[in-house]
Amino acid sequence: MKLSTAELFVFDFDGTLAPNLDLPEMRRRVIALTRAQGVPAAHFAHLYMVEIITAAGAWLASTESSPGSVQHAERAEAYQSQAHQLIEDFELDAAAGMEVFPKTREVLGGLKQADKRTSIVTRNCEQAVRQVFPDVDDYCDLLLARDNVEFLKPDPRHLQCALTHLEGTPQRSVMIGDGRMDMQVGRTLGLTCVGVLSGSSDAPALTAAGAHFIVENIAELAAHL
C-alpha cells in the first residue's frame, strides 16, 4: 500500500516522535529491585519491564516465594507498587528535559490537514508523554499510553484498540515505530509497517521484524505521504 492512500497512521512514541528513554538503565533498575525480593531470574529475565513486574508479583504472591507465610499478597502488592513507581519516576525524570523531534508537529499536522486519522500507541505512561508533548491533543486523535489500556504492545490488542476507536482497517492503516516490537505487532494485524532509525533499532533488525520499508526519521516520512 502507498502511504498516501492510508487513512490511519499509528505511531510509537519514544524513538519515533521523541528521543528514546534509556530503557536499558530502566530495565537494570527494575531487575535490581526484583532480585532484591528474591525472585528467581527464570521467572522474569526473558520479559519486558511491565511484564517483569507482573510475573514477579505473581511469584511473590505464591506460596513458593515464602513457604509457611500468610503475607504473600501484601508482599507482592508492596513490590509491584514500588516497581511501578520506579518506572513512572524514571519516565518523568527523563521527560523533564525532553521535547518531541523538531518535525513531529509538522508531520502530524500535515496528516491532520489531509484528513488522516492518527494515534500514538506507547508503553510509556500518559503523564510522561504529555510532559514531552503537551499539545499532543492538537495533533493526534488518540493517545493510548500504558495507563489507558489493559493490554500493552507486543500484545496486538493495544494496537487493535487504536484501530477500533478510530474505525481503521488494517488494509488502510500504517504502524510507524523504531522498535522490532512495533513491526511485529503491526504485521500481526496486517498493517503496513514503517521502521524509523531515530531510536533503538537498525535497518536490518527492523526489516527482519517485518518493516515494509525504512526511513531515517519522522521528517523523512513526510516525503512518502
SSE order and pairing:
Elements: E1 8-11, H1 23-36, H2 49-61, H3 72-95, H4 104-113, E2 117-121, H5 126-132, H6 136-139, E3 142-144, H7 156-165, E4 173-177, H8 180-189, E5 192-196, H9 203-209, E6 213-215, H10 218-221
Parallel strand pairs: 1-2, 1-4, 2-3, 4-5, 5-6
Helix pairs in contact: 1-2, 1-3, 2-3, 3-5, 8-9
Report on the structure:
- This protein is α/β, with parallel strands linked by helices.
- Helices cover 46% and strands 11% of the residues.
- The chain contains ten helices and six strands; from the N terminus they run E-H-H-H-H-E-H-H-E-H-E-H-E-H-E-H.
- Strand 5, helix 9 and strand 6 form a beta-alpha-beta unit.
- Helix 1 packs parallel to helix 2 and helix 2 packs antiparallel against helix 3.
- The longest helix has 24 residues.
Task: Give the structure's gist in a few sentences.
By secondary structure, this protein is of the alpha/beta class. It has helices spanning 23-36, 49-61, 72-95, 104-113, 126-132, 136-139, 156-165, 180-189, 203-209, 218-221, and strands at residues 8-11, 117-121, 142-144, 173-177, 192-196, 213-215. A 6-stranded parallel β-sheet has the order 3-2-1-4-5-6, sandwiched between helices.
Number of strands: 6
What's the gyration radius in Å? 19 Å
- Overall geometry comes to elongated
Poorly predicted ranges (pLDDT <50, ≥5 residues)? none
What's the N-to-C terminus distance?
Answer: 11 Å
